[in-house]
Amino acid sequence: MKKTRIGIFGIGHNHAAAAIDTLRKTEGAEIAGLYEPSDETYARRVKENPGVYDDIPRFSLDELFAAGIEAAMVESSVPDLVATATICAERGLHVHMDKPAGTDLDAYKKFLDIAKDKKLVFQTGYMYRYNAGIRYVLNKAKRGELGRIYNIAATMSTKHPEWFKRQLSGYGVRCPSTFIFGGHLIDLVMKLKGNTEELTAFNAVSGDGGIELTDTSVIVMSYPDGIATVKTSSVEVNGWGMREFTVYGEKGTVSVSPIECPMIVREAAAGEGNPWKDCHRVIDIPEEGRYDVMMREFIDMIQGAIPYDVDFEHEYNLQKYTLKACGYDVD
């Protein structure tokens, strides 16, 4: 099978190790090397993730560009993602870029325009797009099996340790919990309901652990025939187990909660059961690793095994609404 040579650009992102470890096991992928400009970041990430980087050579930026690569996996620290991805796109490389896409919409638009003009494969690291349960819900809705979609409820929370919250604070962005996590859920809402007519965010600072951080948010996205609520929080014990994506349609409801590890999918059809009693059934869907499908489809799209399908307008609007939810003026 043909191999696609990929360069790793940065390993400062919190998801870098798991995503790279998945990529190295993906059929058709070959990791040529990595570039990490910070010695401190490189040493720390290698120590934190034994075995992940052992046989991946570390190159300078020019050396990695000269290594015969066709694609870039951008896993740099969050503030550097877009700038790094732009350099790679200018070189004609297909790009997988982790998220979120920064606070500078103009810079992100520049990158997207370059990738679109060059017809590059661009994939963002929103892993829930590739979750089997989420795809079951989205496909069921798109086939019309739920009828008109009225309301959506989505939650991504957990109880973050102090070091993680301090890292969020260090990004220097408004509403860090929404900046990092909100895009995952806004993405899914927009895939079903499109651009919202009105977005309102309610944010709170819990003071948990003595850290002044906007750590809880509820975002309301209004549509002519319904409402989507998106909640993010860094202070909820067992928030992982309560993560959800629930779609309420005129013909039924489908919910994924927890979203992963374990993934549990429940559904109920209109007319089945008593309105005042629980009438759901659990759908048995095999759960793959968090990044398995994402990495596989990145390689397959580059090699033409699946159709080229990159919605650049959606990617831009997703970041625009995420920033709006954080309190940025994007209009």
Please report the distance between the alpha carbons of the first and last residues: 47 Å
Low-pLDDT segments: none
How much helix is in the residues? 25-40%
List the strand order in the largest sheet: 7-8-9-6-10-11-12-13
The name CATH uses for the topology of the largest domain is: Dihydrodipicolinate Reductase, domain 2
CATH superfamily of the largest domain: Dihydrodipicolinate Reductase, domain 2
Per CATH, the class of the largest domain reads Alpha Beta
Shape: globular
Topology as H/E string?
A: EHEHHEHEHEHEHHEEEHEEEEHH
Counted by DSSP, the helix tally is 11
The computed structural class is alpha/beta
Please state the CA-atom Rg, rounded to the nearest Å: 20 Å
- Count of β-strands: 13
How many structural domains are formed by the residues?
A: 2
Strand residues, percent: 15-25%
Biggest β-sheet: count, sense, barrel?
8 strands, mixed
Query: Which second-level CATH architecture of the largest domain applies?
Result: 2-Layer Sandwich
Mean pLDDT over the full residue set:
96
Keywords:
Dihydrodipicolinate Reductase, domain 2; single chain; 24% strand; Rossmann fold; five-stranded parallel sheet; eight-stranded mixed sheet; 2 domains; alpha/beta
Descriptive overview:
There is one protein chain. The strands form 2 sheets. Strands 7-8-9-6-10-11-12-13 form an 8-stranded mixed beta sheet. Strands 2-1-3-4-5 form a 5-stranded parallel beta sheet, sandwiched between helices. The protein has helices at residues 16-24, 39-48, 61-65, 81-90, 105-117, 132-142, 162-170, 176-193, 239-242, 292-303, 312-326, and strands at 4-9, 29-35, 71-74, 94-97, 122-124, 149-157, 198-205, 214-223, 226-233, 244-249, 252-256, 265-269, 281-283. The protein has 331 residues and is of the alpha/beta class. It is globular and about 65 Å long. Helix content is 35%, strand content 24%. Helix 5 (105-117) packs antiparallel against helix 11 (312-326). It folds into 2 domains: 4-127 and 291-308, NAD(P)-binding Rossmann-like Domain (Rossmann fold); 132-287, 2-Layer Sandwich (Dihydrodipicolinate Reductase, domain 2), CATH 3.30.360.
